[in-house]
Amino acid sequence: MAVFTTVPEISAKDFISRWPAGAFRSITPIASGIENTNYFVDTDTGRWVLTIFEKLTDKTLPFYLSLMEHLGEKGCAVARPLRTKNGDLFDHYDGKPAILTNRLPGEDGREVTAPTCASMGETLARMHLAVQDFKLWQENPRGLAWWIETIPRILPIVPADIRSGLAHELQAQIALQGGEAWKALPAGACHSDLFRNNAKVSDIGTGHERVTGVFDFFFAGCVPFIYDLAVTMNDWCTDMKTGEFIPEREKAFLDAYAFVRPLSGLEKQMWRGVLCAAAFRFWVSRLSDFYEPRDAALLKPHDPEEFRRILVNRQVCDLYWPEASTD
Ligand SMILES: Nc1ncnc2c1ncn2[C@@H]1O[C@H](COP(=O)(O)OP(=O)(O)OP(=O)(O)O)[C@@H](O)[C@H]1O
Ligand SMILES: N[C@@H](CCO)C(=O)O
Predict the structure, then answer these.
(1) Do residues 167 and 85 both lie within one domain?
(2) Where a domain ends, among 102, 125, 143?
(3) Are 134 and 281 in the same domain?
(4) Are residues 47 and 116 part of one domain?
(5) Among 26, 67, 72, 226, which residue's Cβ finds the most Cβ atoms within 10 Å?
(6) Which ligand is nearest to the CA of 289?
(7) Domain boundary among 102, 128, 162
(8) In a domain, 321, yes or no
(9) How many CA atoms lie within 13 A of 45 on its CB side?
(10) InterPro entries, per this entry (predicted)?
């Protein structure tokens, strides 16, 4: 259920006329998604996506929307907010912020192959190159500061047998992220939640699958680029039943990424710790969603165990690294 705010046809026609998107034809609810209200909007210029934000506010949106616009201007395959006729990045429906974005072609990226991973790797590297001149800054909303605040709160309510693992990895990450090497990693504004359900893929089943675009930037923040790479690969390249990387996906993803944005010796040295950080982020957020749900109506928690398994695997597994690096 993804329609929390109902937009009747009659108000849609008036509301959509605030954007230079052409003459309104119809509006259709989108059934998936759990955070925001999403509709397809058809006009005489094509199909658009209307998103009405149920939680994000006027204050928090500009970073995310400016990032999407910046990436779009640089030619990256992303959902891009259309500015209103007044030149604004968003308007309001029923008092809630709302945007209109281009509708990305393709299908859900849930079933992936090595070619899909190669395409995602290339797309991600292009996004990382494109933000090098992006001026806005925002801390990772689910980064170390959030873990330090959240873990003491959830520790007494999570199963006893995972408490020491949580506390141990938090200490390891405080040491890692407080160090000079972490701070020296190339960094910038990143999606930071680029799971398969936040991308569209075309040519499925042909062996030449291609990512047509990514969306849902609403956990974006400024992080090391290889942290974003680790978040994305931990989802796209993993066998979720075991937590292990699927070797052909891991290699395809990293080779394609490094071909566009060569990786450095420092990034290689930090890779295992960063993969653990990326796994830990979702273990902690899923535990928090599961054991201290904020709004049961809006949140269907994902399985925290998947990311505990990934973390345990990344702490010790053999890791592939592309041959050529910049130093
Ligand atoms: N720009 C877009 N182009 C095509 N489809 C889109 C676009 N934006 C959203 N969608 C579709 O709408 C669905 C819901 O969007 P999204 O995943 O952002 O929902 P949400 O509720 O905001 O977030 P969550 O991922 O937390 O559930 C997606 O699965 C996708 O199919
Ligand atoms: N992608 C996240 C949900 C949104 O941050 C997860 O699967 O836990």
Answers:
(1) no
(2) 102
(3) yes
(4) no
(5) 226
(6) 2
(7) 102
(8) no
(9) 13
(10) Aminoglycoside_PTrfase, Homoserine_kinase_II, Kinase-like_dom_sf, Pseudomonas-type_ThrB
Q: What is the mean pLDDT of the chain?
A: 95
> What's the CA-to-centroid distance between 105 and ligand 1, angstroms?
12
The best mutation among 195, 238, 294, 299 to test binding of ligand 2, ranked by most ligand atoms within 8 Å of the C-beta, falls on: 195
Asked if the structure places residue 27 within a domain, the reply is yes
Q: Which residues of 157-197 form beta strands (DSSP E)?
A: 187-190
- Ligand in closest contact with the CA of 231: 2
Cβ neighbour number for residue 256 with a 10 Å cutoff: 21
Residue 296: per-residue pLDDT: 45
User: 8 CA distance to ligand 2 centroid (A)?
Assistant: 30
Letter for the amino acid at 203? D
Which residue range forms the structural domain that includes residue 34? Answer: 9-102
Q: Do residues 123 and 152 both lie within one domain?
A: yes
321: Cα within 13 Å, side-chain hemisphere:
19
Ligand 2 neighbourhood includes 93 CB (under 6 angstroms): no
Name which residue sits closest to atom 27 of ligand 1, judged by CA: 33
Each residue of 107-119: pLDDT tens digit?
987 789 999 999 9
Helix then strand then coil, % of the chain, to nearest 5: 45, 15, 40
The residue length of the chain stands at 327
Residue 209 lies in a domain: yes
CA nearest ligand 2 atom 5, residue: 193
- Please report the atom of ligand 1 found closest to the CA of residue 195: 25
CATH code, domain carrying 78: 3.30.200.20
Strand partners, 259: none
User: Which portions of the chain are predicted below pLDDT 50?
Assistant: 1, 296-297
- Contact 197/214 with Cβ under 8 angstroms? no
* Predicted local confidence at residue 149, as pLDDT: 98
- Atom 10 of ligand 1: nearest residue by CA position: 49
On whether residue 2 sits in a domain, the answer given is no
